[in-house]
Design a protein that fits this description.
single chain, 130 residues, mainly alpha, 2 helices, 63% helix
Length: 130
């Protein structure tokens, strides 16, 4: 069996090797952390861009639908005005919020009486037994 004599020079060499290996290990970890940070930033940027596009698309669609609805209401208003004889035609004005008027409750109609309950019919066998 061979034994290696531990000398201070050998210990210094081992410590130096471990030191260099740990420095490389730390540099590799820092490089990976930097790459992960770049990926995370890219994902966040993509998410923000997608959200912005979605909000813009929804906003554009809502505005188009509101414009279409407004035109339809104006068209129906003019058709309604043309159906009323002698009524002046309404001028095209921007929509104005109207105040609500007090409503009177609807008159209640008397409730109909519930139909009388029917007794179940007897089967021919029960009639014969009775």
């Amino acid at each position: 069996m061979s034994t290696t004599k531990v000398t201070p020079d050998l210990v210094d060499k081992l410590v130096d090797r471990f030191s260099k290996a740990s420095e490389r290990f730390v540099k590799d970890i820092e490089k990976q952390i930097h790459q992960i940070d770049k990926r995370i930033k890219a994902f966040v940027d993509q998410g923000e861009a997608a959200t912005t596009r979605l909000v813009e698309t929804v906003d554009k669609e809502l505005r188009a639908q509101i414009t279409s609805l407004r035109k339809e209401v104006e068209h129906l208003s003019s058709e309604l005005a043309s159906l009323r004889p002698g009524a002046p035609r309404p001028a095209a004005k921007p929509a104005v919020k109207k105040t609500t008027t007090a409503r009177t409750p609807a008159k209640r109609t008397p409730a109909k009486a519930a139909p009388a309950k029917r007794t179940p019919r007897k089967t021919p066998a029960k009639r014969a037994a009775a």
